[in-house]
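subagent[fold] <- orchestrator: predict structure for attached chain, return tokens only, no commentary.
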Amino acid sequence: MARMSCDLRFLLIPAAFMFIYIQMRLFQTQSQYADRLGSAIESENHCTSQMRGLIDEVSIKQSQIVALQDMKNRQDQELVQLKDLIHTFEKKGIATLIEAGQMPVAAVVIMACSRADYLARTVKSVLTYQSPVASKYPLFISQDGSDQAVKSKASSYNQLTYMQHLDFEPVITERPGELIAYYKIARHYKWALDQLFYKHKFSRVIILEDDMEIAPDFFDYFEAAANLMDRDKTIMAASSWNDNGQKQFVHDPSALYRSDFFPGLGWMLKRSTWDELSPKLKENHKGRQFIRPEVCRTYNFGEHGSSLGQFFSQYLEPIKLNDVKVDWKAKDLGYLTEGNYTKYFSGLVRQARPIQGADLVLKAQNIKGDVRIRYKDQAEFERIAGEFGIFEEWKDGVPRTAYKGVVVFRIQTTRRVFLVGPDSVMQLGIRNS
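subagent[fold] -> orchestrator:
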């Protein structure tokens, strides 16, 4: 019996070793399966990540496809508009007019955006004086954007041709804080002028905005200006506006001046000048000047617009709109050509009586005849201009309305005041007195 118990103990030892061996193999197998499972999970995560990347790439491609489709739709829409424009243009007989040799003096374009009520007032004023000379001044409205009220109003007139500018490109300003609206306006101007100069082959274009009324002799004035610009290539553009054209500062409706400052607000440009400006859309005078009247031929009633009403109550609202029909055909404008004007203008300044010191406004009012006042720099000009109430602003180193640094305006009707800059003495040959 004792022998049998001993034999059993000897048998249990190998069995124990076998059990331990089997447990070790099972643990090893489990570890291998765990490693394989970890690798499988890692592979699955990698595949999932790749799948997500592919989904994102597909989404980007789909967005690009949608953007390309939108671009195609816009181009198709512009093509339809262009065909409609050509049809309207031909229907209204402008092409026939040109073929018959009756070349217009200039196309007139009213730049509009989203102010249908302003546009109606402007068109009413323009048609009042354009209708008798419609063959000389074909009329267009160019709308920036898709405001339906403006489009409906513009399309309702049989006397004009409607154009629409659609701009979907984002605006990137050159300097922080600049108004995006001015960049969009510049793009619209470029597009409209390219259309009129290059597609429709007009030699001149008069640009108005949708918040302007015009004077009775507006078109006669620009016809005279067109002849002057043909004679003198140093004239960059002719404007119907005087920044210091408020009622208290003007007198003579037939007086014209050259200026180094671009007046804008109703102006005429030649195609040859636009050839230079269009590629970069930047003002480049190259030593040339602008023609402006003493009494404005346009009145700006746009209190609400892109400029946010800037200067309106002080400078724009009191502007004097000419109400006299000047016979421009009878006027000799030879004094405005480059060869004559410097001599003519410097003569006016030299004849004016110099005054200085305090109480300049009072002195100017109590002296008979024209007066001239020297200013040494921009700060002093702004102070003197503020005393009289004229525009104080400069742009690119030039005071508004200035010719060779001289700003001229009327005081008490007929008498002129000349504000003379530090460089004017040499440029105009004025004695330093």
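orchestrator: received. Logging for downstream: The mean pLDDT is 86. The longest strand covers residues 107-112.
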